[in-house]
Fold Caffeoyl-CoA O-methyltransferase.
Amino acid sequence: MAMAGNAEACLRGGIAKFCYGSSRSRVPRPSSFLVLQLAGYKQHRSFALQVLADRRNMESVMPVNTKANKLLSGDRLFQYVQAQVREPEILRTLRQETSKMRGSSMQVTPDQGQFLAMLARLMGAENCIDVGVFTGYSALAVAMVLPDSGYLVACDRSQESLAVAQRYFKLAGVCHKVDVRLGMAVDTLKELLVRGDAGRYDMAFLDADKRVYPEYYELLLQLVRPGGVIVVDNVLWHGTVADPSVVDTKTQSIRDFNKFLLHDGRIDYNLVSVGDGMSLCRKR
């Protein structure tokens, strides 16, 4: 028993190094021998199995969007945060496939995906909009938690990326909830208004062309109900919004949009530093 106790003590030390080790290129981890040794003792088996699960989670954390949060990017704390995400296997598979694609940095991080899913659950959302679907990670995360009668409009102008998204919608069994719209999102949103969808939607996620954010926002504000929420992504823009030396058009447009949201009396507003920054805009 003393041997098992020593093994668990060593293993716990290994976990501490694994989570907080100084090396970023090669993080120490508990040895497989210690894990298997503990698994042989009934009283330590559950702990050993948890270690194996935690290791798999840590090692599957992706650098798909390594610049998502400049405060955490490339840091062990970023890896730790991602390891705390309860990411469904199908989302992990989609994330890993997307990481090999051109433009993979556009994909949201796992914590952002589950943040959106949690928000949809808390709101009891039934009708949602995703503007800028890319390969479908955010849309799938939300669609999976909508009720069977739920409805999500998924907008993107790339046929290639939407094809990936549709494949995963089918694999996840949520095709009946998702209305995929190929084309310019501004046109799609206007079509929704023309057909009488004003005030229908509980939640909208905006992650498209940053320079068009103001136009998207005004259309979405008409489409969401009072009490509905618009979530806007990339509002920290890899930290450059706080750097006065960065004056390119895209960065400045995000700064201007953030300032506009701060003073918009039609919404309750909060900016959270999840991923690359997300603004929560609750329609009054």
User: Anything to note?
Assistant: The radius of gyration is 21 Å.
